[in-house]
Each structure stands twice: as C-alpha cells, then as structure tokens.
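Sequence in, structure out. Go.
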Amino acid sequence: MAEDYVYAFLIESDSKKVLIAMDELNNWKPHEDVIGVDLAILPVGIFEFHPLNGERLLLEDHPVFQEEATFNETLEIVKTLEAKHVILTHIEEPNGLSFNDFKELENKLKSYGLNIEFAYDTQLVKV
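Output:
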C-alpha cells in the first residue's frame, strides 16, 4: 500500500485469490500480483460528488482528500485491478446514500462493465 500505516491481505488457494484492503487506497498503485484477483474487497473512498446526481458534496480543497482516496479514484483502482468481483466497504453514513441509492449505483456501474457490489450488514460472499 502507498501509506506506511496501511496494509492489505492477499489470500490464495490453489484456484482462487482474494484481496482485502480495508482502508486508505490513497496514492496506491496495485502491484501485478493482485491484478485479476477473483474478489477484491476495498474501501469505497470519499464521495466528493454525489454518484447519482453529480452534486458536489465536499469542497474541492477539503483536507480529507490529503488522506483518503475519492470514490472516483477508487473506481480507477478497480479498473486497474481487473478483479472478477469487487465489494466496496467502509461506507460512511455522512455520505447520505441509502441502501437503494447504492443498489442503483451498482446497476449504473454494471452498465459500464464494472462488477461492483456495495457491502452491507450480514452479507455473505461466495468466491
């Protein structure tokens, strides 16, 4: 990971690879060892803009952008990873997005060819 205080896990079996990076993708460039994993679990990032209507949610110079990747930066990482399935987690309530908003966003992202799902309580995942 790009930040000294951040780590991730790569879990491998004979036929599957799972990448789990729970926090802080800021400035991270995925290593070739994690390209094409079966499942990537990543933080969603900070919503600088509302992902459905484009409204700016945070000021352009907000200090959080020095420490956290934005949602759009996370999407670029997802594209680079080329994972078969991605689950985005570390979802913050202040973003103001509902479960239904996230489901709508999933459908929008799938229409762009991104197999992204947003995490939720009690979620089970098959790899």
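Check: The chain has one domain: 9-14+27-118. Residues 9-14+27-118 form one domain.
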